[in-house]
Please model this.
Amino acid sequence: MEIKINNLTKRYGKLVALNKINMEASGPGCIAILGPNGAGKTTMLKLISNIIKPTEGSVLINNINVSDYPERALKYLGALIEQPEFYYYLNGYEILRFAAKVKGIKNNIDEEIKRLADLTDIKSYLYRKTGTYSRGMKQRLALAVAMVGNPEIIILDEPTFGLDPRGMAYIRDLIKDLSREKLIILSTHLIYEAREVSNRTLIIDHGEIKYDSIKNDNKKRILVTFDGPFNGIKSDVIEDIKNLDGNKMIITPVESVSNYDIIYDLIKNNVKIKSVQEYDDLEEKYISITS
Model:
């Protein structure tokens, strides 16, 4: 399961929606794409899914060009793009049956629908007309449609949009489970969600990838709150210390050093520690990149 994106560009007249994007990813795992409205997230996912064609560049799925050989390439892919809508007079079962036939599934369709209904927890309203569905119900059904045929690559555009907190937690847990065996690429506005479900994060702004966690500085850091004066220390296990306002500091350990070693070293240097926690500066990066 592999995606290669080469100089991917999409222009609408003078508007450049996506500008020479390059990325390679192989699974299993989950990639989260963060960015403000209009940054190019959905455009990128539409190009991967062959919903729109690139102005320049290419997308390869398992070394098959999506634009040139869509039927061959897209058999490996399932997608939920933007906010889903369905024929209001069809029920969920009928929608999934239709999707299975489009995917070329001829045998055991009912077994596949049962698997998907169980997986996405839509059993209780599977036979209701979709015109009566709430936004969250439609979102779950769309996720089931994306997984018809058990594709090895799944594209998700804001998969928890419209769900209540319990539904959001369920879908996040499902994505984490799926990413153990599949390659998941999802867009989200929620930094917490990106942290929670992904092992790689991209930040897109103005049609360009401005941050990629596997290429940029992604060292482990800890946030230490202390009590009393702090005049600096000499340490063989600390690479860098950044003092924050008040009584906090961000510590970058030497590679492979445990938090226990850091705490022990601070205590040796007479630092009175109140608390220690993992420090994630993804929010700071996002704000600095998109401001």
Remarks:
- The mean pLDDT is 89.
- DSSP finds nine helices and 14 strands in the chain.
- The two ends are 35 Å apart (CA to CA).
- The CA atoms of residues 40 and 207 lie 5 Å apart.
